Amino acid sequence: MAGKVGIATIQGVSTGSGAVKTLLQLECGVNHPIKILEVGIFFHGVNNTHEPIDAYLAIQSTAGTMTGLTVNENDEDDSGTFDTVAQHTATVEPTTGVHVRDMAVHPQTGLIFSPNSEAQPKVSSRVGLVIDPPNGTTVDAYIVFEE
């Protein structure tokens, strides 16, 4: 039987500039691992000469301070609740450990990728989508996962 697929998404978040910012964080439920299926990040930059934005998917050991986010079902016919907890837009950054995927994304473009098996968080751990923008812009992002 296939697992339940969820989507955590944000739109129109201001990045600020020169400071690391966790955009999205998923925390696996107790004894309930997840599989990251797809990650997307899209910037609304207006200056084509701005340098690329460093973005990475990372394992995080703390929650930081963020706003709770409702996880949406990929299939509206699915019932029940998710064990995975989502948060967005850190005001106090979590502790970030291993980077499992590093990317440089031009601020007028976006990127969609499917992580490999090394990018899958263990039970009761957290995975975050983090950026380090040299210039301010606006961003949309999502993480699709299966639990």
State the separation between the terminal residues, measured CA to CA. 12 Å
Mean pLDDT: 89
H/I helix tally: 0
DSSP helix fraction: under 10%
CATH class: Mainly Beta
What class do helices, strands and sheet pairing give?
Answer: mainly beta
Low-confidence runs of at least 5 consecutive residues: none
Strand order of the largest sheet: 5-7-2-10-4-8
**How many structural domains does the protein architecture include?**
1
CATH topology: Jelly Rolls
**Overall spatial form:** globular
What's the CATH architecture name? Sandwich
* Tally of DSSP β-strands: 11
Tell me about the biggest sheet?
A: 6 strands, antiparallel
Estimated share of beta-strand residues? over 45%
Helix-strand sequence: EEEEEEEEEEE
Taking all Cα atoms into account, the compactness measure Rg is 15 Å
Structure characterization notes:
The structure is a single chain. With 147 residues, this protein is mainly β. The chain has one domain (5-146): Jelly Rolls (Sandwich). It contains no helices and 11 strands. The strands form 2 sheets. The chain has a 6-stranded antiparallel beta sheet with strand order 5-7-2-10-4-8, with no helix packed on it. A 5-stranded antiparallel beta sheet has the order 6-1-11-3-9, with no helix packed on it. The radius of gyration is 15 Å and the shape is globular. The mean pLDDT is 89.
What is the secondary structure topology, with strand pairs?
Blueprint: E1 5-14, E2 21-27, E3 35-43, E4 53-60, E5 65-69, E6 72-73, E7 85-92, E8 96-105, E9 110-113, E10 126-132, E11 138-146
Antiparallel strand pairs: 1-6, 1-11, 2-7, 2-10, 3-9, 3-11, 4-8, 4-10, 5-7
